[in-house]
């Protein structure tokens, strides 16, 4: 488990079996401003990724806390990082600069794909089929994106009303009896609203 803090620090936590509380295994100053996201890599036990309000996405070597192996600049704070569920070398970042970027760890000079969603990217969530993404785009509602290595990112569907506040959270909630439909839950901030809607695959 990983945690990010408003101080700019990130921490990796362990929860040993038969113990009630988690213990911090390592902690380090990752960003000059608030750290918005931190996660250990699902593909490498020695890697972690973080993003902060200093406009940086950073890759870390967990064998040496505080050793940044790569720092990738964005145009605004980095708020979200998700690895591809089945392709070990791909991950996505979301930012206040309103773009979703796809990165390839084998060539990190620039993103391999990018898509503007018209609002700060606060949440990204893969579908079970690994070809669709939910995106909470803050002041521009919720999106369903498609991704393939060949065509990149594409906007498939948008959902806004009755949300009237910041698009904050989104998740897939299982499926309907029809195999081509998927239930989606979205929530917005100041209006305290949770909505359920369906997406057709």
Order of helix and strand elements from N to C terminus: EEEEEEEEEEEEEEEEEE
* Percentage of residues in strands: over 45%
Category from helices, strands and their pairing: mainly beta
Sheet with the most strands, sense and barrel status: 4 strands, antiparallel
Number of helices: 0
Number of strands: 18
Q: Name the poorly predicted regions.
A: none
- Name the overall outline: globular
Radius of gyration: 17 Å
Write the layout of secondary structure elements.
Layout: E1 2-4, E2 9-14, E3 23-29, E4 35-40, E5 47-52, E6 56-61, E7 68-73, E8 78-83, E9 90-95, E10 99-104, E11 113-116, E12 123-126, E13 132-136, E14 142-148, E15 152-159, E16 167-175, E17 181-188, E18 193-200
Antiparallel strand pairs: 1-2, 2-3, 4-5, 5-6, 6-7, 8-9, 9-10, 10-11, 12-13, 13-14, 14-15, 16-17, 17-18
Family: Belongs to the DPH7 family.
Catalytic activity: diphthine methyl ester-[translation elongation factor 2] + H2O = diphthine-[translation elongation factor 2] + methanol + H(+)
InterPro entries: Diphthine_MTase (IPR052415), WD40/YVTN_repeat-like_dom_sf (IPR015943), WD40_repeat_dom_sf (IPR036322), WD40_rpt (IPR001680)
Describe this structure in words.
- The protein is globular.
- It is mostly beta strands and 201 residues long.
- Helix content is 0%, strand content 55%.
- The model has no long low-confidence stretch (mean pLDDT 91).
- A hairpin with a 3-residue loop joins strand 9 (90-95) and strand 10 (99-104).
- It has strands spanning 2-4, 9-14, 23-29, 35-40, 47-52, 56-61, 68-73, 78-83, 90-95, 99-104, 113-116, 123-126, 132-136, 142-148, 152-159, 167-175, 181-188, 193-200.
